[in-house]
């Protein structure tokens, strides 16, 4: 039984100015009572209600922040324990101060993922749901969020459970046959096993088919930023990422390797690849970079093609136009702060007007328009499509493939391998599927999974 009370900063998705602190455990309410001041004490509040009040330093009476307090009493809370959530809006300093007070008055700082781990250990959620929470925390866009949310609601678990029911029934059937072996019954049983195995393999295939889409959503649409040296590719990456991870310089060809950055642009999750300037070169190091960019261009689901509109179109760029012919492309005419040397008409020969965005990246100009174009392409389905059920996790994919292999083994064995041998394969598949939903996972795997969480969930 879990006996201590944990607390952590747990800023909700969507960021914004409000921060949240979550407290869970038997003392959640009494600890809150020591620092919360309002009409009613926390302990007088009804479960699942919200109250406006103040957090104060109990000794000095000093006001820390005005807050909204939410109480959810056991067992009807996320962790099945008493949970208090404090939403404050005073920025990082007051959030930290509140957390500090809670720790001073008896709470313990939560380990990463500990809230979700408690929810799992208390039987509130199964493992796929817990893992979906990891995805949810990591998901960097609204879209990925809503897909992850569906998994929290258990759509994958449901499918796995019904799949396992088929296999249980099959195992029971075989068991009966082993106990009463008669020749004609045996033949019927082989046919029955083959049928059920095929059915189960089909169901697993359906889940696996959607695995890549889950991956797209979590990791973002693979987006290559291409263009000649010095047109502003790294500057664009930096503008979009808002942190100076890529090196920006005046010397052409300094982006030697591919730099990756995960961003959300117009609500769309992108995995940005800044490539070395694509051009023929004799410099060996740069050549490696160019090779890599060609590769990332192949992989790309979206291409941001940057041009310096202050220089006439270059032969390299005409060649590049051909290379991206079959891709979803946005052409960025950069450096609009400088005089134009490229006519839009030169671009719209190959690309539609909606695909062309004018920017002055250095001066933060045109970003909104770029966001709009990306969002439109996304919502028109040009650069992504989703399905409601999917597998979004490497561990799930591995286990599903393993289960599938066992079932194929069983299927291949029907009519010539003894039935009790087939039984072993089917049981293996059943167990692997059980692992997806956490039915038979080991202690160490649980720790491993939950250590991936961010603090506060
Ligand atoms: P990359 O080689 O394509 O990655 O280009 P960089 O991002 O490294 O930029 C090359 C140079 O162009 C740098 O000196 C940038 O400051 C400059 N630059 C980027 N965007 C603009 C812009 O909008 N206007 C002007 N005038 N210069 C820019
Ligand atoms: Zn660069």
UniProtKB/TrEMBL annotation:
Mg(2+) binds at residues 234, 255. Its main location: cytoplasm. CDD domains: trmE, TrmE_N. It comes from the Bacteria. (6S)-5-formyl-5,6,7,8-tetrahydrofolate binds at residues 22, 85, 124, 457. GTP binds at residues 230-235, 249-255, 274-277. Homodimer. Heterotetramer of two MnmE and two MnmG subunits. This is tRNA modification GTPase MnmE.
């Amino acid at each position: 039984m879990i006996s201590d009370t944990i607390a952590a900063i747990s800023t909700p998705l969507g960021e914004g100015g409000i921060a949240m602190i979550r407290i869970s455990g038997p003392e959640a309410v009494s600890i809150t009572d020591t620092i919360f001041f309002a009409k009613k004490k926390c302990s007088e509040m009804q479960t699942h209600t919200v109250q406006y009040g103040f957090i104060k330093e109990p000794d000095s009476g000093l006001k820390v922040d005005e807050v909204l307090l939410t109480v959810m009493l056991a067992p009807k809370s996320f962790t099945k324990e008493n949970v208090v959530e404090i939403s404050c809006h005073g920025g990082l300093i007051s959030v930290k101060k509140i957390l500090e007070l809670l720790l001073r008055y008896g709470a313990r700082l939560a380990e990463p993922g500990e809230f979700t781990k408690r929810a799992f250990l208390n039987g509130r959620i199964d493992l796929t749901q817990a893992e979906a929470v990891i995805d949810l925390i990591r998901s960097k866009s609204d879209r990925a969020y809503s897909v992850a949310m569906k998994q929290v609601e258990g759509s994958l678990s449901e499918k796995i459970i019904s799949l396992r029911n088929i296999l249980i029934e099959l195992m029971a059937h075989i068991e009966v046959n082993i106990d009463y072996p008669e020749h004609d019954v045996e033949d019927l049983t082989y046919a029955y096993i083959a049928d059920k195995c095929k059915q189960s393999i089909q169901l697993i295939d359906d889940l696996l088919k959607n695995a890549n889409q889950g991956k797209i959503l979590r990791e973002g649409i693979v987006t290559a930023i291409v263009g000649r040296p010095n047109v502003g590719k790294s500057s664009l990456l930096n503008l979009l990422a808002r942190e100076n991870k890529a090196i920006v310089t005046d010397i052409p060809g300094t982006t030697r390797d591919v730099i990756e950055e995960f961003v959300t642009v117009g609500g769309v999750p992108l995995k940005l690849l800044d490539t070395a300037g694509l051009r023929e070169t004799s410099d060996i190091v740069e050549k490696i970079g160019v090779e890599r960019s060609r590769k990332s261009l192949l992989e790309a689901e979206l291409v941001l093609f940057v041009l310096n509109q202050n220089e006439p179109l270059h032969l390299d760029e005409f060649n590049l136009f051909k290379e991206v012919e079959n891709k979803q492309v946005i052409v960025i005419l950069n450096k609009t702060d400088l005089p134009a040397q490229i006519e839009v008409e030169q671009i719209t020969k190959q690309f539609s007007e909606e695909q062309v965005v004018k920017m002055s990246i250095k001066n933060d100009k045109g970003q909104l328009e770029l966001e709009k174009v990306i969002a439109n392409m996304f919502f028109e389905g040009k650069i992504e499509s989703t399905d409601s059920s999917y597998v979004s996790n490497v561990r799930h994919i591995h286990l599903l493939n393993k289960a599938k292999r066992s079932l194929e083994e069983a299927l291949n064995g029907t009519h010539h391998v003894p039935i009790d041998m087939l039984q072993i394969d089917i049981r293996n598949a059943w167990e692997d599927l059980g692992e997806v939903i956490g039915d038979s996972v080991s202690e160490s795997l649980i720790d491993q999974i939950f250590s991936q969480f961010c603090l506060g969930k």
